[in-house]
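Model it.
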Amino acid sequence: MASGLLTNACDIGIFDEKGTDLAGKGFRGWSGGFRTEFSISAGDTTPGYLPGPIGKGTWNVVLGPYQVAEQGLDYTVNVTLEYGPDVAPFKPQYPPQQVAGRGAGWYRGDAHLHTVYSDGKRTPEDVAAGARAARLDFMISTDHNTPASHGVWGPLAGNDLLILTGEEVTTRNGHYLALGLEPGEWIDWRYRARDKGFEQEAQRIHASGGIVVPAHPYCPYVACRWKFGYDDADAVEVWTGPWTLDDESSVNTWDSMLAHSVRTGGRWLPAMGNSDAHSVPQVIGFPHNVVYAAALSRDALLDGIRNGRNWIAESADVSVDFQVTSGGKSATVGERLNVAAGAPSR
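Modeled.
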C-alpha cells in the first residue's frame, strides 16, 4: 500500500488432470501471493507444491486476485513443459503421531506456524529448532492451503518434540486452522460464507479426527475477518502473536459466548493462543497452549483442546496452578466442578 492506495496482490496455485472439483483429487500446489513462479516434477517441486508424475490431460492454473488496485491488475501466465531426467519419486517422511512413554500431563505447544512451504521465511528446520528453543513439547504445522510440508517433518521430530500436521485454510471470508490432519490430507479453501463449502470441509476434518479452530477472527487484513460463525468450530484462537486490539475483540466475543453458554446450558467453546509466526522477529511459542492430555499424542492433545483442558501462556516461563473445592470435591485447570447454589467453596 502506498499513499493510502491499495497495491495489487495475486495468489497462484495449480490443479492437475484430475480436475478442480471442491475437495477433489486434482490439487497440486499453492503459494498464494508469495511467489511469482513455480515448478513441478516427479521427484522435486517448489515448496508449497506436490511432487509427482505430470499426467496427460488438462491442468488448471488458479489465479486469485486477492487485492486489486484502482488501475486494474495485468497478468501473464507462461507455461513451460520439458523432459527431465528420470528420478526416483518423492517419498514423504511423515512425523509420528505420538511420543512413546509420555503419559498424562500438561504439554506445551504452538499450533499455528508457517514455513517457506507457504508464506513464511523459515525453513521447517528453523521452525523445529524454534519450537525446541521455546521449550515446547509439541507443534503443529499450518502452512496456508497446502499440505506440501507434511512429508518433510519426519526427520525433524523426536522424543523431545511431537510434530503434528495441519493447514491454515485461507478463505476470502476468514481463516481457520485444521489441526491434526492425517499427514498429506488437503483441505479446500475455495468458498465463501454464503456457500456450503466450510460446513462440508469441517465435516471432513472431524471425520479424520482433526479439529477446526477459527484463527485471528478480528484480523484487520483483507479477507481475514471471520464470517462463518462458530457452530462447526471446536475452539477459537483468541490470542495471536503479540497482543493487539483485534485480540482484545476476540477475547470479548469469546467471553460473550461463554456467558451465553452458561445462560442457555449449551456447549462452550475453548480458547487457544498461538504465535502465527512466519519469520524473524516473530517468536515461535509467543503465545502457546498448555494442554492437559492423557499422552503426548495427536489424539490425546486434540481431545484435551476439544474439551477445554487448555490455558494460554506467553512463554514457558509462565505457569498456572489453582484448585477449587466444595462439598468434598475438587477441580483444577480445565476441569468442571458442579456445586449447589450457595454452597461454600474455596
